[in-house]
Design brief:
six-stranded mixed β-sheet, four-stranded parallel β-sheet, about 35% helix, binds ligand F0G
Length: about 450
């Protein structure tokens, strides 16, 4: 059964409630030409019932069609912006597991936790969910070159999807501030890679100018189609739970695209009748890069960027997150919270996630660190049903891991991180007696 509504029912629209201007879905827009606010995709109400949609999503798991095998495009009725699906390039993104982790639950002060592990994606992060949509739209628009600035995962993902789609990929990275695993991916997938002597926020401003001037399609999360794809993380999570809504969804916050996507996806799932209430969203930032936390907690009128963001969790080292207005809306709509955590808290939570046999990159571990703080403060109940989203694979940043376990990890400013759950390798002689003695 196919229940996809025609894509002519899709538009781009201004996110600002006071403007709400609408534009054709085929326009190349990242901000509203009238008021400058962020742009989002909007759709006419779905004609299919919730029961029909759920049945279709489930049936597609048995299909061998590439579109149905994708854990993103399986939910395509929820983002019907394409009129021709031949533009889609899928690496079978999504399809990521929900994993129970008793040790992490205990550490986080919970009875139970499940991790939605986006590190199982083809390039090892949640960016693949959005990138398959952004690249499909680039092809639908006839674009030949795509670009992004990245703390590493967006670039790895964009490089892979652009290569698979036959597009030229231009990648801009903050020099010296991304992990080698991520840089290596961009090179391996053949992207033209520029390392700029500036931070993420400065480079984003730079490439927005270049994109306009050179007619390059921008695939950062200001691109509304990236957000559409990332909504599928929530649809898949709900589908895996037979549409039982958790109490909390916890995720790291950097540029704040992902929380914008999760909130939009959940609200749309609610409107479509797929669920009947919203989970609360909890966004966790690293202390040295926490402008959204400061904004929400100070109740400030103006959003104040952090000029020199710092954290060893380089994925979320962002001081001026572009999507903060959308993120704020989603935190408010879901009655959610924003928390910040220290470098030590991230490092220890990450080691605990590793001890569960799961593992993740540093930015992702901020979730468990944040949960531990939020349960201690009584914000999250010990009995709560919590899904934490691990955004990136453990192998993204092996350097961090090696240093932590050897007690050599230093936070910005030279503060030593304690190797609380350290696990050092031991160098031994090739001598059975000595090794037997060592092993007891
Ligand atoms: N976790 C990981 C592993 C990330 O790579 C990112 C962002 C985030 C969390 C934060 O998500 O920006 O949507 O709030 N990485 C971007 C990049 C910025 O360039 O790869 P966000």
């Amino acid at each position: 059964m196919t229940v996809a509504p025609p894509s002519t029912l899709a538009q781009l629209r201004c996110f600002n409630p006071a403007c709400r201007s609408q534009f054709a879905i085929t326009e190349v827009l990242y901000n509203c030409p009238k008021c400058g606010a962020l742009i989002e995709a909007g759709y006419s109400p779905l004609s299919a019932s919730a029961a029909e949609l759920k049945r279709t999503f489930r049936e597609r798991r048995l299909s061998n069609s590439p579109l149905d095998q994708s854990g993103v495009w399986r939910y395509r009725e929820m983002f019907p912006f394409l009129s021709d699906y031949s533009h889609v390039v899928t690496l079978r993104e999504g399809n990521t597991p929900l994993l129970d982790a008793p040790l992490a639950a205990e550490y986080g002060g919970l009875k139970r936790i499940s991790f939605k592990h986006q590190g199982f994606n083809p390039t090892g992060s949640f960016k693949d969910n959005g990138m398959t949509c952004g690249v499909a739209q680039a092809r639908a628009l006839g674009m030949k070159r795509v670009a992004c600035v990245s703390t590493g995962n967006t670039s790895a993902s964009m490089a892979a999807y652009a290569a698979a789609a036959g597009l030229e990929a231009l990648i801009f990275l903050p020099h010296g501030n991304i992990s080698f695993g991520k840089l290596a991916q961009a090179l391996e997938y053949g992207a033209k890679t520029l390392e700029v002597e500036a931070n993420f926020d400065q480079i984003l401003a730079l490439i927005r100018v270049l994109a306009d001037r050179l007619g390059i399609y921008l695939l950062n999360s200001v691109n509304p189609f990236r957000i559409e794809g990332q909504k599928s993380i929530m649809f898949e999570m709900l589908d895996q739970r037979d549409w039982q809504v958790p109490d909390w969804v916890v995720l790291p916050g950097g540029n704040l695209g992902n929380v914008s996507a999760f909130g939009k996806g959940l609200r749309e799932a609610n409107s479509a009748g797929l669920i009947s209430r919203l989970p609360k969203l909890a966004v966790i930032q690293a202390e040295g890069s926490a402008p959204f936390y400061e904004f929400v907690h100070e109740g400030a009128r103006e959003f104040r960027p952090v000029e020199k963001p710092e954290t060893l969790a380089t994925a979320i080292r962002i001081g001026d997150p572009v999507s903060w207005p959308k993120a704020l809306h989603e935190i408010q709509s879901s009655n959610g919270v924003v928390e910040k955590v220290s470098e030590q808290e991230i490092a220890d939570a990450k080691a605990i996630i590793g001890r569960c046999g799961i593992g993740c990159e540093p930015g992702s571990a901020s979730t468990l660190a944040g949960i531990r703080k939020l349960t201690a403060a009584g914000v999250i109940d010990r009995d709560a049903d919590v899904v934490a989203v691990l955004t990136g694979n453990v192998l993204k940043d092996p350097d961090y891991i090696y240093k932590y376990h050897r007690g050599k990890l230093e936070a910005p400013g030279g503060v030593k991180i304690q190797s609380t759950y350290g696990n050092r390798s031991i160098v031994v002689l090739n001598d059975a007696d000595k090794i037997a003695k060592l092993l007891g």
